[in-house]
Amino acid sequence: MRTLRLFSCGLFAATALAVLPATLAATGTVTLTGIDGELRDNTLALLSLEQEPCDAPDWRMQASLQQAHTDIHQALQAFGYYEPLINQSFQRGEPDGCWSASFNIQPGSRVNVRNIDFSITGAADSDDSFQQLLSNTDLKAGQPLRHDHYESLKTSITNLAANRGYFNSQLTQHELQVDPTAGYADISLHLDSGARFFFGETAVQQTIIDD
Fold it and tell me: Label partner for 19 (CA 20 to 30 A): which of 59, 170, 195, 205?
Protein backbone atom coordinates (compact mmCIF):
# COMPACT_ATOMS: atom_id res chain seq x y z
CA MET A 1 0.00 0.00 0.00
CA ARG A 2 1.35 3.39 -0.96
CA THR A 3 1.64 6.07 1.65
CA LEU A 4 0.64 9.59 0.68
CA ARG A 5 2.07 12.38 2.76
CA LEU A 6 0.52 15.83 2.96
CA PHE A 7 2.59 18.91 3.61
CA SER A 8 1.25 22.41 4.22
CA CYS A 9 4.77 23.73 4.69
CA GLY A 10 7.68 22.70 2.59
CA LEU A 11 11.07 24.01 3.37
CA PHE A 12 12.90 22.75 6.39
CA ALA A 13 15.48 25.26 7.56
CA ALA A 14 17.42 25.97 10.71
CA THR A 15 17.35 29.60 11.75
CA ALA A 16 18.21 30.40 15.35
CA LEU A 17 19.26 33.37 17.39
CA ALA A 18 21.03 32.33 20.57
CA VAL A 19 22.82 34.05 23.41
CA LEU A 20 26.08 32.21 23.89
CA PRO A 21 27.49 31.70 27.38
CA ALA A 22 30.86 33.14 28.25
CA THR A 23 32.46 29.68 28.30
CA LEU A 24 31.44 27.07 25.74
CA ALA A 25 31.64 23.40 26.71
CA ALA A 26 33.55 21.13 24.36
CA THR A 27 31.26 19.21 22.04
CA GLY A 28 31.59 15.94 20.18
CA THR A 29 32.29 15.33 16.51
CA VAL A 30 29.74 14.57 13.79
CA THR A 31 30.85 13.09 10.45
CA LEU A 32 28.58 12.80 7.41
CA THR A 33 29.36 10.66 4.38
CA GLY A 34 27.36 9.89 1.25
CA ILE A 35 26.03 13.40 0.70
CA ASP A 36 27.59 16.70 -0.28
CA GLY A 37 26.75 20.22 -1.44
CA GLU A 38 23.35 21.60 -0.46
CA LEU A 39 22.24 18.28 1.03
CA ARG A 40 25.20 18.21 3.39
CA ASP A 41 24.88 21.89 4.28
CA ASN A 42 21.18 21.62 5.08
CA THR A 43 21.70 18.44 7.12
CA LEU A 44 24.44 20.02 9.22
CA ALA A 45 22.29 23.11 9.74
CA LEU A 46 19.43 21.00 11.13
CA LEU A 47 21.45 18.58 13.26
CA SER A 48 20.99 19.47 16.92
CA LEU A 49 23.33 16.61 17.84
CA GLU A 50 26.37 18.82 17.31
CA GLN A 51 25.36 20.89 20.34
CA GLU A 52 25.77 18.01 22.79
CA PRO A 53 28.77 18.43 25.14
CA CYS A 54 31.46 15.80 25.54
CA ASP A 55 30.22 14.84 29.00
CA ALA A 56 26.56 14.37 28.01
CA PRO A 57 25.21 11.27 29.78
CA ASP A 58 24.40 8.16 27.79
CA TRP A 59 20.64 8.53 28.17
CA ARG A 60 20.80 12.00 26.70
CA MET A 61 23.04 10.94 23.84
CA GLN A 62 20.65 8.11 22.99
CA ALA A 63 17.78 10.59 22.69
CA SER A 64 19.92 12.99 20.64
CA LEU A 65 20.96 10.22 18.26
CA GLN A 66 17.33 9.31 17.70
CA GLN A 67 16.55 12.97 17.04
CA ALA A 68 19.47 13.09 14.59
CA HIS A 69 17.70 10.56 12.36
CA THR A 70 14.60 12.77 12.35
CA ASP A 71 16.72 15.83 11.55
CA ILE A 72 18.43 14.05 8.66
CA HIS A 73 15.13 12.90 7.19
CA GLN A 74 13.73 16.45 7.35
CA ALA A 75 16.86 17.94 5.80
CA LEU A 76 16.72 15.52 2.87
CA GLN A 77 12.97 15.89 2.35
CA ALA A 78 13.50 19.58 1.71
CA PHE A 79 15.26 18.54 -1.51
CA GLY A 80 12.86 15.75 -2.48
CA TYR A 81 14.57 12.72 -0.88
CA TYR A 82 11.99 10.91 1.24
CA GLU A 83 13.37 7.40 1.65
CA PRO A 84 17.05 7.58 2.62
CA LEU A 85 19.13 4.79 4.13
CA ILE A 86 21.05 5.93 7.21
CA ASN A 87 23.79 3.90 8.90
CA GLN A 88 25.05 5.25 12.21
CA SER A 89 28.06 4.58 14.41
CA PHE A 90 28.77 6.09 17.82
CA GLN A 91 31.63 5.86 20.27
CA ARG A 92 33.25 7.63 23.20
CA GLY A 93 36.94 8.32 22.97
CA GLU A 94 39.66 7.91 25.55
CA PRO A 95 40.88 9.34 27.85
CA ASP A 96 38.56 12.38 27.86
CA GLY A 97 35.47 10.38 26.98
CA CYS A 98 34.33 12.84 24.29
CA TRP A 99 31.91 11.26 21.84
CA SER A 100 31.95 10.99 18.07
CA ALA A 101 29.12 10.01 15.73
CA SER A 102 29.19 9.22 12.04
CA PHE A 103 26.32 8.84 9.61
CA ASN A 104 26.57 7.24 6.21
CA ILE A 105 23.60 8.53 4.24
CA GLN A 106 22.28 7.15 0.97
CA PRO A 107 19.62 9.65 -0.16
CA GLY A 108 17.79 7.23 -2.44
CA SER A 109 15.56 8.20 -5.34
CA ARG A 110 14.39 11.77 -5.66
CA VAL A 111 10.72 12.74 -5.86
CA ASN A 112 9.70 14.70 -8.96
CA VAL A 113 6.79 17.11 -9.33
CA ARG A 114 4.08 15.33 -11.34
CA ASN A 115 1.36 17.96 -11.47
CA ILE A 116 0.74 21.56 -10.43
CA ASP A 117 -2.94 22.42 -10.10
CA PHE A 118 -3.18 26.21 -9.98
CA SER A 119 -6.62 27.77 -10.22
CA ILE A 120 -8.04 31.25 -9.62
CA THR A 121 -11.52 32.39 -8.73
CA GLY A 122 -12.61 36.00 -8.47
CA ALA A 123 -11.69 39.04 -10.49
CA ALA A 124 -8.17 37.74 -11.18
CA ASP A 125 -9.36 34.75 -13.21
CA SER A 126 -8.65 36.70 -16.41
CA ASP A 127 -5.44 38.38 -15.17
CA ASP A 128 -2.58 37.03 -17.30
CA SER A 129 0.00 38.15 -14.73
CA PHE A 130 -0.59 35.01 -12.69
CA GLN A 131 -0.06 32.65 -15.61
CA GLN A 132 3.12 34.53 -16.44
CA LEU A 133 4.26 34.08 -12.86
CA LEU A 134 3.58 30.35 -13.03
CA SER A 135 5.56 29.98 -16.27
CA ASN A 136 8.57 31.74 -14.72
CA THR A 137 8.66 29.88 -11.41
CA ASP A 138 11.40 27.40 -10.50
CA LEU A 139 8.72 24.89 -9.54
CA LYS A 140 7.76 22.95 -12.66
CA ALA A 141 6.16 19.62 -13.48
CA GLY A 142 8.76 16.98 -14.27
CA GLN A 143 11.43 18.67 -12.17
CA PRO A 144 12.78 17.45 -8.81
CA LEU A 145 10.76 18.60 -5.83
CA ARG A 146 12.27 21.32 -3.66
CA HIS A 147 10.29 22.63 -0.73
CA ASP A 148 11.85 26.08 -0.97
CA HIS A 149 10.58 26.42 -4.55
CA TYR A 150 7.10 25.45 -3.35
CA GLU A 151 7.18 28.00 -0.54
CA SER A 152 8.58 30.65 -2.89
CA LEU A 153 5.74 30.13 -5.36
CA LYS A 154 3.12 30.51 -2.62
CA THR A 155 4.72 33.74 -1.46
CA SER A 156 5.01 35.05 -5.02
CA ILE A 157 1.32 34.41 -5.69
CA THR A 158 0.15 36.26 -2.59
CA ASN A 159 2.57 39.15 -3.21
CA LEU A 160 1.46 39.49 -6.83
CA ALA A 161 -2.18 39.50 -5.78
CA ALA A 162 -1.53 42.35 -3.34
CA ASN A 163 0.51 44.30 -5.89
CA ARG A 164 -2.23 43.93 -8.49
CA GLY A 165 -4.90 45.31 -6.17
CA TYR A 166 -6.56 42.08 -4.96
CA PHE A 167 -6.37 43.11 -1.34
CA ASN A 168 -8.86 40.53 -0.07
CA SER A 169 -7.24 37.59 -1.85
CA GLN A 170 -6.32 34.39 -0.07
CA LEU A 171 -4.96 30.96 -0.90
CA THR A 172 -7.96 28.79 -0.09
CA GLN A 173 -5.94 25.65 -0.79
CA HIS A 174 -2.20 25.08 -0.67
CA GLU A 175 -1.37 21.42 -0.56
CA LEU A 176 1.74 19.39 -1.27
CA GLN A 177 0.93 15.70 -1.63
CA VAL A 178 3.86 13.30 -1.88
CA ASP A 179 3.93 9.63 -2.82
CA PRO A 180 7.53 8.57 -2.02
CA THR A 181 7.05 5.02 -3.31
CA ALA A 182 5.80 6.14 -6.71
CA GLY A 183 8.32 8.99 -6.72
CA TYR A 184 6.01 11.90 -7.47
CA ALA A 185 4.47 14.94 -5.82
CA ASP A 186 1.23 16.74 -6.69
CA ILE A 187 0.71 20.39 -5.81
CA SER A 188 -2.61 22.19 -5.45
CA LEU A 189 -2.77 25.98 -5.18
CA HIS A 190 -6.15 27.68 -5.36
CA LEU A 191 -6.41 31.46 -5.13
CA ASP A 192 -9.62 33.31 -4.36
CA SER A 193 -8.70 36.83 -5.45
CA GLY A 194 -11.92 38.58 -4.55
CA ALA A 195 -12.53 41.97 -6.13
CA ARG A 196 -9.80 44.16 -7.55
CA PHE A 197 -9.37 47.61 -6.06
CA PHE A 198 -8.25 50.68 -7.96
CA PHE A 199 -7.03 53.99 -6.67
CA GLY A 200 -9.08 56.94 -7.81
CA GLU A 201 -7.79 60.28 -9.02
CA THR A 202 -5.73 62.13 -6.45
CA ALA A 203 -6.37 65.84 -6.04
CA VAL A 204 -4.06 68.10 -4.06
CA GLN A 205 -5.35 71.43 -2.82
CA GLN A 206 -2.91 74.09 -1.69
CA THR A 207 -3.71 77.30 0.07
CA ILE A 208 -1.09 80.07 0.01
CA ILE A 209 -1.26 82.64 2.77
CA ASP A 210 0.56 85.94 2.30
CA ASP A 211 1.98 87.47 5.46
Answer: 59
For residue 167, give every residue at least 6 positions away whose Cβ sits within 8 Å of its Cβ, in sequence order, or none.
194, 197
47, 66, 48: which is closest to 58 by C-alpha? 66
Q: How far apart are the first and last CA of the chain?
A: 88
Which pLDDT tens digit goes with each residue over 84-129?
Answer: 999 999 999 876 779 999 999 999 999 999 999 999 999 999 999 9
Q: Are 95 and 126 in contact (CB under 8 A)?
A: no
Q: Give Cα separations from 22 to 17, 25, 55, 154 (angstroms).
A: 16, 10, 18, 42
pTM equals: 0.81
C-alpha 93/C-alpha 28 separation (Å) is 10
